[in-house]
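Q: What residues go here?
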């Protein structure tokens, strides 16, 4: 796939016309999506395993061989695929929980996420993972509807109930108000009817000199 075309594809959430109905653009033979899925499988299998020392050594050698192969394709951050595939859950960023954002309006965003043991604290979602999910959905909303770029200035998360693993959680964000360059956002995460976490966040619109490193491909 030609990565230079990524920022203009219909499913690109930063596209200025993106308030049109969201159409995921995963292609039938999407090899990069396959690779992301394979990395996720490694992460989950690694987390669940208790290999012997001999097997650890052999596996480390195999994984280093994979890393060496990937290094042959290294590009600059603007050109990498990970994090730039807006149509994939988690944007193809393998550290991120696989949040699938399903709907964004000018004032609301909705998504779903299921995490496994890789993102576990102890029989529940790790407390550092929940803010990752809120940051992702609230940042998308903060930067939607053609608004100029803003970065997260503060994110305050309240953990109301353990967030279970291996089941779907619903995540929502709401644009509360704008005050000059400040955009106030609110987020909630539910398992069924149970509120598992909620968040308040502040996004601050960037001044021109603060957008120097933002690539053309990421500009709404
Ligand atoms: C590549 C682009 C990606 C963009 C989306 C990706 C989402 C992200 O994950 S961003 C990564 C995490 N966030 C960051 O790295 C941001 C780091 N921080 C910064 O860059 C700066 O502090 C930044 C831009 C947020 C604000 O700095 P600056 O522009 O100098 O703000 P400043 O003029 O001091 O303050 C503006 C207003 O915001 C308020 N404010 C700023 N920070 C805070 C804060 N943490 N808490 C409360 N209020 C704050 C100020 O009080 C001020 O309010 P008022 O206008 O009423 O006086």
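A:
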């Amino acid at each position: 796939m030609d990565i230079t075309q990524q920022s203009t594809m219909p499913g690109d959430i930063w596209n200025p016309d993106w308030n049109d109905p969201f159409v995921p653009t995963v292609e039938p033979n999407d090899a990069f999506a396959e690779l992301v899925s394979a990395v996720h499988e490694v992460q989950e299998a690694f987390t669940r395993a208790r290999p012997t020392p001999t097997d650890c050594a052999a596996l480390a050698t195999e994984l280093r061989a994979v890393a060496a192969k990937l290094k042959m394709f290294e590009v600059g951050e603007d050109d990498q695929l990970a994090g730039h595939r807006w149509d994939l859950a988690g944007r193809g960023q393998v550290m991120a929980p696989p949040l699938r954002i399903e709907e964004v309006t000018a004032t609301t965003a909705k998504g779903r996420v299921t995490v496994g043991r890789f993102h576990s604290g102890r029989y529940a979602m790790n407390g550092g993972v929940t803010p990752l999910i809120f940051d992702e959905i609230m940042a998308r909303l903060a930067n939607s509807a053609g608004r100029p770029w803003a970065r997260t200035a503060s994110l305050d998360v309240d953990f109301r109930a353990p967030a279970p693993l291996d089941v779907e959680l619903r995540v929502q964000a709401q644009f509360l108000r704008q005050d000059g360059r400040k955009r106030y956002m609110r987020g909630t995460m539910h398992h069924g009817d149970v509120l598992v976490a909620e968040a308040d966040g502040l996004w601050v619109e960037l001044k021109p000199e603060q957008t120097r490193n933002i690539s053309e491909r990421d500009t709404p």
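A: Context that may help when evaluating the design: Residues 1-11+24-89 form one domain. The longest strand covers residues 194-205.
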